[in-house]
Write a structure and sequence with these properties.
The complex is a heterodimer of chains A (321) and B (203). Chain A has 321 residues and is of the alpha+beta class. Chain A has ten helices and twelve strands. Chain B has one domain (24-170, 181-202). Classes of the chains: A alpha+beta (321), B mainly alpha (203).
Chain lengths: 321, 203
């Protein structure tokens, strides 16, 4: 497991990320030989890892039948990523002016038996490649998307780090680069951005680390090269462009909760019955709808009640919002 | 209107076009209101500036524009919520009350922005009524500041300059009382005697 420490991210050749054309050609090749999509699953893990996980294959348990995927163009142009500015269009505009998500090192640390610094491609190899999952995404601002993420379960990374018994929470820290990042030059938010989950939440099968979407590496505005995706919680819990994942014993301070604890709870589970103090959470605007589409009802735990409700059994969700 | 219409026709409203229209119309409304409220203190501060005097003649149309954009903003809100259910739900939130109260004031001021109303109310009462514009600005800046995550950093760019202008005007008035050479229109009586008829004459 620890051998990865030797492999520095910049030693990874550029070809580790499959160019789109090659990606498409490979699909065609597979189809021609009659393997079909299922064929990718038959490939040895090492071979998939050589392509930094692309292409992936859709995990059938997370297909979300009957739900329309949000257009890629919307997912990559409508972002809350305050490091790059408050307006939804600013992350796309400002994060692509020379800022590089490569090379990138993710640090695993805190109360774990296997702390390490690791490059993203090495990490993908270690966890056995990536898969695709279609997840609902519900922003605390009452809009929503359906996003085909590429990545791997957070639980796999936790297995890799081997948290100690005292570890009760997992803390996520985003990058800090005020020189290139206009939003971080102001003190409107306490930088760097931090988030956290309880260990059982982080071990839940839904908790996901995304390295791509729509079969391509994550764009800068979406949190390249690696971000958290916690689909049953409001979007702000899913911290972007992670540099550090730590195991801690006490509930850590996290950005929005620290800034406005009465508005953004630690749990921040999607809950149509508990309004934000300033606006309703009962319904949501689906991105990609027309002028007259109105809003659709928001689902408890964003529709993932079956998978996660047990984590909060006996808890007063109105108080622990 | 063209400020909103041009991006709408060229398809540059982004992934959530109705939200863009909702936000832009609100922004235009509140900044237009800010502009019109900045005009009277600016004239007091720079009594000899021709630009200020000229701009002040157009206060009525600027104020009415703010109200029109405010009404547009309200219509987009109704559309965004997608009907009466959503609208009713939104009415449970203080941030909507502040917006609605501010807009109600703007509508009243717009409806009384004519010579008939000035005559019917009398210059003094009319002026007092239209001072509600400042109340509306306060309500609407608060409305803007709490409308979303992290909106205060935007709203303060409107609040602080407007407050500074009012303070400067107040300071100038207080110090001006001691000076005999202050222009006549700047004294309290002068304001009422000169200002109101001049705006009436404009039409």
């Amino acid at each position: 497991m620890r051998k990865a420490e030797a492999g520095r991210p910049w030693e990874m050749p550029d070809c580790a990320v499959t160019p789109e054309a090659q990606y498409v050609r490979r699909r065609e090749f597979l189809r021609l030989f009659g393997y079909g999509l299922a064929g990718t699953a038959l490939l040895p893990a090492t071979m998939r890892a050589a392509f930094a996980g692309f292409p992936d294959s859709l995990n059938p348990s997370f297909k979300l039948d009957g739900v329309k995927l949000t257009p890629e163009d919307s997912i990559t142009s409508y972002n809350n990523f305050y490091e790059w500015g408050f307006a939804k269009g600013q992350p796309k505009e400002l994060s692509n002016r020379g800022w590089k998500a490569e090379p990138w090192t993710l640090e695993l640390g805190g109360l774990c038996a296997n702390p390490q610094k690791i490059g993203i491609n090495d990490l993908i190899k270690l966890v056995g490649g990536i898969e695709r999952r279609n997840y609902r995404h519900r922003c605390v601002e009452a809009w929503s998307m359906v996003i085909p993420w590429d990545g791997f379960p957070l639980a796999k990374l936790i297995d890799l780090a081997q948290p100690k018994l005292e570890a009760k929470y997992v803390k996520f820290t985003s990058f800090f680069d005020p020189e290139q990042c206009p939003g971080q030059r102001s003190n409107d938010l306490p930088w760097p951005y931090t988030e956290a989950l309880t260990l059982p939440e982080a071990m839940n099968e839904l908790a996901f680390l995304a390295t791509g979407l729509y079969g391509k590496p994550l764009r800068n505005q979406n949190g390249a090269p690696i971000r958290l995706v916690v689909p049953w919680k409001y979007g702000f819990k899913s911290a972007k462009s992670l540099v550090k994942i730590e195991f801690v014993s006490d509930q850590p301070k996290i950005t929005w909760n620290e800034l406005a604890p009465n508005e953004y709870g630690f749990y921040a589970n999607v809950n149509p019955n508990v309004d934000h103090p300033r606006w309703s959470q009962a319904s949501e605007r689906v991105i990609g709808g027309g002028f007259f589409s109105g809003k659709q009802p928001t689902l408890m735990f964003n529709g993932y009640e079956k998978q996660v409700a047990h984590l909060y059994a006996g808890m007063d969700l109105r108080r622990n919002f | 209107m063209w400020l909103l219409a041009i991006p709408a026709f060229t398809g540059r409203l982004g992934a959530n076009p109705l939200e863009t229209l909702l936000h832009e119309s609100g922004e235009i409304a509140i900044w237009t209101l800010g502009a019109v409220l900045a005009l009277s203190p600016l004239r007091v501060l720079f009594p000899n500036s021709r630009i200020m005097t000229a701009l002040n003649r157009h206060r009525r149309i600027i104020g009415v524009t703010a109200c029109i954009y405010g009404l547009l903003h309200f219509s987009f809100h109704v559309l965004y919520e997608g009907g009466l259910d959503g609208l009713a739900r939104s009415l449970s939130k203080p941030f909507i009350w502040f917006g609605a109260a501010g807009l109600t004031i703007l509508v009243i001021l717009t409806l009384t922005s004519n010579q008939w109303s000035i005559r019917a109310l009398g210059g003094k009462n009319w002026k007092l009524l239209h001072r509600l514009g400042y109340v509306a600005a306060g309500l609407l800046i608060y409305h803007q500041a709490i409308a979303g995550k992290g909106h205060w950093p935007i709203a303060r760019w409107l609040l602080f300059p407007l407050a500074a202008l009012q303070l400067a005007r107040l300071a100038k008035r207080l110090s001006g009382k001691k000076r005999p050479d202050v222009p006549r229109r700047m004294s309290q009586k002068g304001l009422q005697a000169v200002q109101i008829p001049s705006s009436v004459r404009f039409r």
